Amino acid sequence: MKPSLNFLSASELAAMLRAGEITSRQTVETFFAQIKKQNPTYNAIVTLNEAQALAQADQADQARSAGKPCGPLHGVPITIKDTYRVKGSRTTAGYPPLKDYIPDTDAVAVKLLKEAGAIIVGRTNTPTLAMDMQTDNPIFGKTNNPWDVKRTPAGSSGGCATALATGMTSLSLGSDLAGSIRLPASFCGVYGLKPTHGVVSFEGHIVPLPGEINGYRTLAVAGPLARSIDDLALALDVLTQPTSNDRNVAPLLADLGGNVDIFKLKIAWTDNFGGVPVSAEIKDKLHAFVNKLAQAGATVHKLEPQGTDYNEIWELWGSFVGAQGNYEMSNLKRSIGHLFSKNTLKNIPMQRKIVGPISVPKLMQAFELQSQYITKMDNFLSEYDVWLCPVSATTAFKHHAHSKMFGDFKIYNTPLQVDGADIHYYVATQSYTTVFSTTNSPVVSMPIGLGQSGLPVNIQVASKRYSDRRLLAVAKVLDNYTDKFLYPLQ
Questions:
Q1: In b/e form, how buried is each residue of 165-179, taking b as 16+ CB within 10 angstroms?
Q2: DSSP conformation class of 139
Q3: E strands within 352-418?
């Protein structure tokens, strides 16, 4: 029995299209059929580009028949998170004032994917302005988890991850500031890459809002989600192509390591950042995976970078988000906001520095401290091929209601349950991801199997900055030792 086109990788589809085994129209129609059948249940895709996509599929087939040069994603259907400009396609970022916004230009990353031949079939759901760890907004409502519709796929790239795990797309473009690629990949059991900061253009992403200055000069990245490591590597090659539309991107290091041999790998790992609890099913799965790697011949050490103060890193992340995300806000307004929120945020290190005044000297001190931690992390990862750790404190949790609104954003005061313990929403979802956002490190979120609950368990695989290609090569070897599973609709 032939596998469904819907669950083949983008790399496999591209190869079949090049060989003439399938047509672009046939492939695109197959994905639209899946979307129409499954999306009412999962609400992953919020805008369809059907007429345009089918016309492009016909053009792709004609070009191939005529022997014209084809890009690496020629005729392959993909989706784009509803935070990127896509020419002629409604782009809302889940923000009501943008509900009818139709850009007349593409974001740089979108343009590169199109130039590679990809066909955009639709836009995936996101929380309002991509600022939540669940995927829900006033325009389109909430996205459901493929493994249990009562659970969240996480956020903010939750629509991307659900679309992949339900066979509604072969590849999706997401974004990550606090774990917004890595956490949805984990909750849905797919693969996600947070690239090194600055190697993929962020131009054309919302936020900032159209016409506003982009304040996010650190931390935030664009990156792919997929159902295989090969697809992450393919997408990374496309997204890091030089472009005259954004000369600010930095080049990646070439992977000069040759074939990756499990016997030569030096792997560091940990199951604990700063005492933040991790559920037993995640720990058990991580421990079993590490033991497999050791038995296969890898050198494995449980350790962390010396002198790491996680609370300091988390506060540093919050300082940057607060200063850069609200760069136009006066310190008077920041002080008022801090006065009303300090008691709520005092036990949440990622959040307590987001609200509050910040001076230029304090911001410069934050940059200096970030530089020190970048050096410390890269030095640590110079001794090891990768560092393995959890993605979050818990697997996919049930849709979690917010306590109140602060402007357009949801505030969560009701804790999540992690093995019966009360853990704050942001502590549980951001503690293990924001560390690598702060150090600008590339990270793969990859599934290693299903936990005792039957839900996917992912881990983070981190490496030195600019070594993204080598990271993916190592991750592909590690992927051989994971427990494989089928997706619920597969």
A1: bbbbbbbbbbbbbbb
A2: T
A3: 386-390, 404-406, 409-411, 416-418
Strands 443-450 and 456-462: antiparallel
Distance CA 465, CA 169 (A): 29
Catalytic residue flag (residue 11): no
Q: Give me 450's structure tokens.
A: 């299903």
Which listed residue (11, 89, 156, 170) is catalytic?
156
pLDDT digits (tens, 9 = 90+) for 425-472: 999 999 999 999 999 999 999 999 999 999 999 999 999 999 999 999
Cα–Cα nearest to 151, from 430, 418, 450, 396: 396
pLDDT tens track for 78-112 = 999 999 999 999 999 999 999 999 999 999 999 99
Rounded CA-CA distance 98/82 in Å is 11
Q: What is the pLDDT of residue 384?
A: 97
The C-alpha atoms of residue 126 and residue 397 are separated, in whole angstroms, by 17
How long, in residues, is the chain?
A: 490
Over 90: is that where the pLDDT of 120 sits? yes
How many CB atoms within 10 Å of residue 335?
Answer: 12
For the stretch 223-245, pLDDT in tens is 999 999 999 999 999 999 999 99
Tell me, yes or no, if 180 is annotated catalytic. yes
Q: Which residue in 180, 186, 437, 441 is the catalytic one?
A: 180
Residue 214 DSSP SS3: coil
Long-range Cβ contacts of 139-143 (<8 Å, 24+ apart): 139/46, 139/92, 139/94, 139/95, 139/96, 139/99, 140/43, 140/46, 140/92, 140/94, 141/43, 142/43, 142/399, 143/42, 143/43, 143/44
Q: Residue 356: what pLDDT?
A: 81
Longest distance between any two alpha carbons in the chain, whole Å: 67
Residues 6+ apart with CB under 8 A from 274: 310, 311, 314, 431
- The one catalytic residue among 81, 111, 410, 464: 81
Element (H, E) at 444: strand 443-450
| 404 dihedral zone (left: phi>0; alpha: psi -120 to 50; beta) | beta
Q: Which domains does the chain have, with CATH numbers?
A: 5-239 (3.90.1300.10), 262-463 (3.90.1300.10)
Residue 170 a catalytic site member: no
pTM of model > 0.70: yes
| Tens-digit pLDDT profile for residues 305-362 | 999 999 999 999 999 999 998 888 777 677 767 666 666 677 888 888 888 888 899 9
